[in-house]
Design goal:
This protein is mainly α and 407 residues long. The chain has a single domain, classed as Up-down Bundle (Growth Hormone, Chain: A). It is built from 19 helices and no strands. Helix 2 packs across helix 13, helix 5 runs antiparallel to helix 7 and helix 15 runs antiparallel to helix 16. The chain is globular.
């Protein structure tokens, strides 16, 4: 199939990159905001750690449930229409969250948000496959991911500052309006480019999805980024905030500033990891190798946090944000290993596993932490050691699987 003529760079930036980057910005802001507003939610609705874990991780569960049909939809209808439609659900979820009167309302709102933003990254990756050269995918994907890091930045100190003007309900009302505006902008601005589906109907597409999950290469590469990204998202999106307040004994503003530093590390990691992977690929070093090395270094930094070391929290959490992005390079590695018409389903096949694991990790860590009774100083250090240590052990097992399996 012959693709349409490439768009000029200015049009690619203004009509493809910016709309999809803005969507992923909002997606990551939603994912991370509970780390800052958690104390307000806890006080307003009397939530314990396990309930906060369930509430925050509901985003991941709804996100994961949409991934397989999302891959089919992206490959058949294209990223523009699919993401714009789903963002309407996210706007409704933000409104529901803002008006919530109890935990059940919050969970429903959070689930709608997770479902609504579930296409933001995958649609961006699919659009990159449609509009950019194949060899540029690690770099372009990395820049899109960096926009998510900016969303995580927005969910830290800026949200804390906003809470001095309004409350958490006001924050979510503003997010509902912004999300609706993003859906409209995406639908109107992005050029239509009909994806090549490879032939056949939904039945054929489902069989091809089964072939992805039946691929030995997929199962060699997937476990480590699944374990690494689950730990990263569970901690960054919720448990980093309580750790900074209760283990490092930081006040709310200082904790928010440390979360800001972690998010800044994410922005740098998302941008640089893709660029480094692309540059090293020219020398014969595969993106999967870059990802594996980065995730190994991430394990070392995570071990310091799990041990409760507070000697240099800014540096530790900056490194956590930077190295935690390394697992995302595996998306580009897998995309390059399968035909272009499977790109949506390859990415969502991995994303399904990542977000199911992230849901289990974030909620499970809350269950573990809840085994220790809270004190006047907050959550005990031993509770964090146990919860973070479990995640660390799972990643070590996944690293051994990748290293030892050579088929």
């Amino acid at each position: 199939m012959t693709h349409p003529a490439p768009l000029p760079l200015a049009l690619l930036f203004g009509r493809v990159f910016l709309p999809f980057a803005a969507g992923y910005f909002l997606s990551y802001l939603y994912r991370s905001v509970n780390a800052v507003i958690g104390p307000d939610l806890t006080r307003a609705l009397d939530l314990d750690p396990s309930q906060m874990g369930l509430l925050t991780s509901t985003y991941f569960l709804a996100f994961a449930a949409s991934q397989l049909p999302l891959g089919l939809l992206l490959d058949r209808f294209g990223p523009r229409r699919v993401e714009a439609a789903l963002l309407l659900f996210a706007a409704a979820g933000a409104l529901t969250f803002a008006l919530a009167g109890d935990l059940a309302d919050l969970v429903i709102g959070r689930a709608l948000i997770g479902f609504g933003v579930s296409a933001c990254l995958m649609a961006s990756f699919k659009a990159n496959v449609l509009f950019f050269a194949r060899e540029r995918l690690p770099l372009v994907n990395g820049v899109i991911l960096a926009s998510g890091g900016l969303g995580a930045l927005g969910a830290t100190a800026p949200v804390e500052a906003a809470l001095h003007i309004t409350d958490w309900r006001g924050v979510f009302l503003v997010l509902a309006v912004l999300t609706l505006a993003e859906a409209v902008a995406l639908f109107l601005l992005v050029p239509e480019r009909t994806p090549h589906t490879g032939g056949g109907g939904f039945g054929a597409q489902l069989r091809e999805t089964g072939q992805i999950y039946g691929s030995p290469l997929f199962w060699r590469l997937a476990p480590l980024p699944v374990a690494s990204q689950a730990a990263f998202m569970a901690i960054q999106g919720l448990w980093a905030g309580p750790w900074l307040r209760d283990v490092a004994q930081l006040g709310r503003i200082d904790a928010a500033n440390h979360l800001f530093a972690m998010a800044a590390g994410m922005v740098a990691g998302f941008a640089l990891m893709g660029a480094v992977a692309e540059r090293l690929a020219r020398t014969g070093i595969k993106p999967a190798t870059v990802a594996a090395v980065g995730m190994t270094l991430f394990l070392a930094d995570e071990a310091l946090i799990a041990a409760g070391w507070t000697g240099a929290p800014y540096a530790t959490w900056l490194a956590f944000g930077f190295l935690g992005t390394s697992g995302t390079v595996m998306y580009a590695a897998l995309s390059q290993s399968f035909p272009p018409h499977l790109a949506g389903r390859v990415n969502t096949a991995l994303n399904l596993l990542v977000f199911v694991a992230a849901f289990a990790a974030q909620w499970g860590m809350g269950q573990i932490i809840d085994l220790w009774p809270g004190t006047a100083q907050g959550i005990p250090v031993d509770a964090f050691r146990a919860a973070f240590g479990v995640m660390l052990g799972l990643q070590v097992l996944a690293l051994l699987w990748l290293t030892l399996r050579r088929d």
